[in-house]
Amino acid sequence: MDETLVLPVPARLRAVCLVAAPLGMPVGIGSGALALVEPVAAGVPPLPWLTGPSGHCARCVPGGLDVDAPLVRRIREADFHLRVSALGDACWPPSHVTEAAAVGFELAEETGGILLDAVTGDVDPWAGPPEPFDVPEGFAAAEWVGVHAAPGPRGRGWTLTTAGLTVLGLPELRVARIPAALRRSWADVLCGLAQVLLRAQWADLEEAPGCAFREIPAEVRLTAADVGRATAGCPHGAGSALLRLRLDPGTPNGPPTRLTIVAPSERHAADGAYPPDGHPPRSTFPDDVIARADTPPPRSWREAVITQLNC
Q1: Percent with pLDDT over 90 in the chain
Q2: pLDDT confidence of 297, banded at 50, 70, 90?
Q3: In whole angstroms, what is the distance from residue 140 CA to residue 142 CA?
């Protein structure tokens, strides 16, 4: 029997964006669409995180700007900010994220404030007020889910973690020991996997609305087409790779619950398609994959995944 993981289904989800350092208070706050808006002081989370050093660079904030950039200094020195919150659930469509984003965008335009995605840290993340979602097939995970990178312990590659999946009802995804040259490719893989898991969640909850728990497979087949749809890239890729997930439960005062991508199960590693870390693949590594590669055969399952997806 295939291994599965049991995930809770959150009853309520909260999407948040911030209009930082507004030049004035909007008229009508607390009523209508502005019922979603509340003034907050500079020290209220997640503002300290948004204006502090990121995990991979002491000179950058999470959104990528320099910690001493004029925009960051303006946010840090402002007396108050406007927090926009919207509630929703884990079903399709996740209208709470577009609702908060659309109100935040209009509010930033009206007040001259700086729009921030409170989860990813991105500055001015939307070119216009986001439209309500139409169909799941048109959803692109990379538009709503970011990927943060931090150096691994003892210089062993990079740890990549998604930011934004919890707002949509799933634990964040994580993968460790990614070589620097593969950071971009693995960020796309995480977005592709997020797309697959979200689509499965929405399908499950359409069949069983109101359920408190769901089972998901511990091994998920990801295709290049999934990655293309998630990143608004080419949805016609032919490659695929099998990803194995481990559920890492969180603690009340410690790390949050995460889904970590780990080495494949023994039965898949044994066929040579996913070599152990630090060892060349066995001769049974698929010939078509070897033929497509412009570089030497992958030396770990992390490299093999990218090769098989042709990312």
Answers
A1: 64
A2: low
A3: 6
Q: What is the DSSP string of 207-234?
A: HSTT-SEEEEESEEEEEHHHHHHHTTS-
112 in the same domain as 50: yes
Tokens of 57: 């660079």
Mark whether 71 and 153 lie in a shared domain: no
153 confidence band (pLDDT: 50, 70, 90):
confident
CA angle 214, 258, 162 (to 5 degrees): 110
Helices (H), 120-218: 165-168, 183-207
- The pTM (predicted TM-score) of the whole model is 0.88
Q: Is residue 71 part of a domain?
A: yes
pLDDT for residue 59 is more than 80: yes
**Count of domains for the chain:** 2
- Specify whether 63 is located in the same domain as 163: no
Looking at residue 286, its pLDDT comes to 43
Over the stretch 29-41, which tens digit does the pLDDT of each residue have?
Answer: 766 767 789 999 9
One domain, residues 147 and 107: no
225 within some domain: yes
pLDDT at 296: 56
Together in a domain, 156 and 270: yes
Indicate if 167 and 244 belong to the same structural domain: yes
Rounded distance between C-alpha atoms, residue 116 and residue 122, angstroms: 6
For residue 132, the one-letter residue type is: P
For 267, the token pair is 């039965």
Smallest CA-to-CA distance from 271 within 279, 258, 281 is with: 281
124, part of any domain: no
Question: Within 10 A of 45 (CB to CB), how many other CB atoms are there?
Answer: 11
